[in-house]
Amino acid sequence: MNTRTILNVLDINEDLKQHEFSVFEVDTKSCVLRSYDRKSFYKICMITGEKVIQYADRGYKVSGTTLFFGNPLIPYSWENTTEQTGYTCLFSEDFFKAKDRSESLQESPLFKLGGTPIFSLDQQQRDFISSLFQRMIVEQQTAYAFRNDLIRNYINLIIHEALKMQPSEKFAKHQDASSRIAIQFIELLEKQFPIEQIDRPLQLKTAQGYADKLAVHVNHLNRAVKHVTGKSTTRHISERVAVEAKALLQHTNWSVGEIAFALGFDYPTYFNNFFKRMTGSAPKSFRI
């Protein structure tokens, strides 16, 4: 690995560590390796070249310029069959939503389970979306106080441009039984949030609780969710509770004990231990 490669990897990881966002140009001719934890970040990329995209349990052979939306819940990978050029941006849900406590990105038509968010672009679409990626790359290097807000606007423009399109019919995905159950679980999980009243605490807290609500055996639910998303049912629940906990700590004046109760913990100590295990920090460190 040459010096340029090492610097690129360090730059990307440093951006992700500090800002939970990174954008960069893709050019496989340069042999630059990009390294990051896929399961922590959403991905939007616009790539020109022939490739095979492995998405969930299916493979799609694509050529020309492709716009792809990657969900950290869904396993995916790329196999390049020709040289690739284009752009990629990576971002966490916390970065994208910032102070917004609306529904999760998992409910977005482009990111939700069950879709196949692969779009073929014509030249006009390619030029416009390229300009948005280029602007993000420029802003990423500035010291402008509101650069993250500006970058979020560019990401939203790409998302809305894609929402005006229809995924190519050749990429249509036929759902199997495991996919349907996993989708139902994720949708039910999202419906539990946001928590808006202390006296109406979280009701569904375990894999068994979700299995009962979905009228399936818990082992069947666990197998389906693990097969489709690569993560266990319990892990999904824990991660979503942790996200809500951070939002409540940052955007309400509830005490830590009240937040613990609202999220279904019997004692604040249990919540403190859970939060530290999930985030590496104590709950009070997330207070604004």
From TrEMBL:
Superkingdom classification of source: Bacteria
HTH araC/xylS-type domain boundaries: 183-288
Q: Does the keyword Nucleotide-binding apply?
A: no
**Keyword field contains Transcription regulation:** yes
- PROSITE patterns in UniProt: HTH_ARAC_FAMILY_2 (PS01124)
The record's listing under InterPro entries reads: Homeodomain-like_sf (IPR009057), HTH-like (IPR037923), HTH_AraC (IPR018060)
Pfam families per the UniProt record, alphabetical: HTH_18
SUPFAM superfamilies under this entry? Homeodomain-like, Regulatory protein AraC
| Record keywords, A-Z | DNA-binding, Transcription, Transcription regulation
Protein name in UniProt: Helix-turn-helix domain-containing protein
Q: Record the organism.
A: Ohtaekwangia kribbensis
